[in-house]
Amino acid sequence: MSEKVPVQVSVWSQQRAKSGERLTFRTQVAGTLYEKGEAIYVAYREGEDSGLGQTLTTLRIEGRHVTLIRQGETVMKQSLVKGEEQVGTYKTPHGTFDLVTRTSQLIVNINAKGGRLEALYNLRLAGDKSRMELKIDVKPL
Q1: DSSP 82
Q2: How many whole angstroms separate alpha carbon 138 and alpha carbon 10?
Q3: What residues does each domain of the chain span?
Q4: Looking at the Swiss-Prot or TrEMBL record, what is one Pfam family this protein matches (predicted)?
């Protein structure tokens, strides 16, 4: 495992529900970037305004496969692979739900020095469908 590098993580996401309603979320937090084996990891705690409490979010980037893992009040594991449907899980105090993503666009330009990730995907959670757009910038502090 490489040395953990302190980074600034900027996250922008927009969720478009079937009804046409858009929810936009922005946050900027401190995190760490490190390599382990063939994968690059970006780990950060969600801000208080995320609605996720003190959730630890980890991005695992390995080639064209990105896994988003959240651990805290809710536990989530979501995979993004361009052109593929991936099934993950979303565990809450109210139960566990399947989380299905179909990624149409995935641009990963993150290395050991930082970079950017962009994704466009359809999300199905407990029967609700939405379109997600995600942009994450990682810069050394």
Answers
A1: B
A2: 7
A3: 5-140
A4: DUF1934
pLDDT at 52: 54
The secondary structure element, H or E, covering residue 30 is strand 22-36
CATH code for the domain defined by 5-140? 2.40.128.20
d(CA 112, CA 13) in angstroms, rounded, equals 23
Q: 21-35, 46-60, 75-89: lowest mean pLDDT where?
A: 46-60
User: How far from 99 is each of 20, 30, 36, 75, CA to CA, in Å?
Assistant: 20, 27, 26, 12
pLDDT tens column, 69-80: 999 888 999 999
Sole residue written with tokens 């401190």: 30
